[in-house]
Amino acid sequence: MQSNHGNPIATEQRMMFDDLAWERSDNIAYNWRDNLFNEEIFREVGRAIIQHRGGSPEELFNPQKGSFNLMFRMKFVDGGSAIVRFPIPGVSMFAEEKVQREVSVMKFIERHTSIRIPHVLHHGMADDSPAKLGPFIVMEYIENDSDLVDALNTPGLQDDERCILDPNIHENRLRLVYSNMADVLLQLAKKSFAKIGSITNREDDDYDDEWTVTHRPLTINMNELVQLGDFPPHLLPQTTFNTASAYFLALAEMHMTHLSVQRNDAIESAQDCRRKYIARCLFRKLARENRLCSHDYGPFKLICDDFRPANVLADSEHGFKAVGVIDWEFTYAAPAEFVYSPPFWLLLERPEYWNEGLDEWTKEYEKRFPVFLAELQKREQDLITRGILTDDDRLSQHMLESWQSGDFWVCYAVRRSWAFDMLYWAKIDRRFFGHGDLDDRFNLLTVEERDELDDFVQRKLAEKDERTLVN
């Protein structure tokens, strides 16, 4: 389904996380969690849930950890439950901003879609936090016994193993899950916004239904860059964006800054550093020339960076019926190219982590993508028939074109910093620059970029040597 542009100039692996930054992140998170388990903290947390939910409490469960948050659940005598959820320090790098943005988008989704999400009962910042655990959200708990990963995952995998789509999954189950996921994507993308960024309304006015982009897009990649790449937060994008080209350029610049500032595990050798530098310069060149996007002035539509089957709660006793969608952090109005890109999660595993390599991931993806497209088209027609969407809201043709053209890889690479090198050389370079070798690519750089390359490589090698001496 995708065009073959020839063998890549370089075969790159994923860039590694800065393991010292990762260790520091883990230590902060562990120390915070270790201090949770005392009676007084549990009492304060329980009182906060009761205060904002109301009713007679029955049981407060032990906290549960997610990717970015930790939650306490309280069950009430009337049969319902509520939770309080805290971003985990050391893992959630912009905790207060994350809570504010997530609450805003949850209120929007609750008003403007039929997607079932937990109702927000209250939220607050660190100053108002129960037990001083940090910013928090008190919300309804949606009863479930599984999520849609459980419906798709390969049987027998251990809890610490990465999830992979069951190669023998029954097609009816696959279609059911894909249909549920397609419904969420379609409803999330039905409204357009004037800018790229995070949305809000006047939170102090319960009747205000005017949602606008007022804050920078807070993305999962930005969080990970600070957490796992030791990226200075002030160098991240700080504003909203009026055009897709401006945003693509900002992300391309962010890739270059990432290579420059990550001190540990960023490069393996002088040649590796040279390739990484050239790839980022050329990607930035494409962004400057506005060759990476075709919907410069929109429409800009909501996308959740972390949306995947794990976010969709399910009832396994009723055929994994979807019962709700959670974890809306990192949701923002994005370039149309992102929303029109096919989902990365069709195989559960991301392409850069596929054990058999990128080509094998692509082959497996192309087996499942037609199934997803068929279910997406069915959901489109159903929602149009019910008056929820219009013909202009269809995503299926856009997603097919994105995959066939290779735009899927551009959108994925621009949003995944540590996967960038692998994807640039394998899927992007030949498409835009054609035949040639690394010397040809070097000659495409600006005079300034060529002049700076040797010094850049020497600096990164010196940082690498410093780490070696420390070890």
TrEMBL record:
Domain Aminoglycoside phosphotransferase: 72-335
SUPFAM superfamilies: Protein kinase-like (PK-like) (SSF56112)
Organism lineage string: Eukaryota, Fungi, Dikarya, Ascomycota, Pezizomycotina
Organism encoding this protein: Talaromyces atroroseus
Entries under InterPro entries matching the protein: AGP_Transferase, Aminoglycoside_PTrfase, Kinase-like_dom_sf
Protein name listed in UniProt: Aminoglycoside phosphotransferase domain-containing protein
